[in-house]
Design brief:
Layout (H helix, E strand, L loop, with lengths): L1 E6 L5 E6 L5 H5 L20 E4 L12 H8 L8 E3 L12 E5 L4
Parallel strand pairs: 1-5
Antiparallel strand pairs: 1-2, 3-4, 3-5
């Protein structure tokens, strides 16, 4: 297990365990303050939208075209927006900090 820092919609930071090899969404949807993840990770609903801490953004693989397209349509899009269903947790991402985006 690796550590993931999650800032909820109230601005409170939580340290949670995240299993390497799983998408970050899979951890976040299990939290009371997490994401809805309505489509279950199919990159089609954006209910797992998060902001990746700017210090970590360059360490993640670039988003694929379908993720970029979906994100660009969101009212709360920022340049550090990602869909947590598209980001796999790895040992090298231990300590990754994400903020759950506002509901759309």
């Amino acid at each position: 297990m690796t550590k993931l820092l999650v800032v909820d919609r109230d601005g409170e930071e939580h340290e949670v365990e995240c299993k390497p090899g799983l998408k970050i969404m899979e951890t976040l949807r299990e939290l009371d303050y997490g994401v809805a993840a309505i489509c279950g990770g199919m990159c089609s609903c954006a209910t797992c939208h998060v902001y990746v801490d700017r210090n970590w953004a360059d360490q993640l693989p670039a988003p694929m075209s379908d993720e970029r397209e979906l994100l660009s349509e969101l009212a709360h899009f920022q340049d550090n927006s990602r869909l947590s269903c598209q980001v796999e947790m790895t040992e090298s991402l231990a300590g990754l900090r994400v903020t759950i985006a506002p509901d759309e």
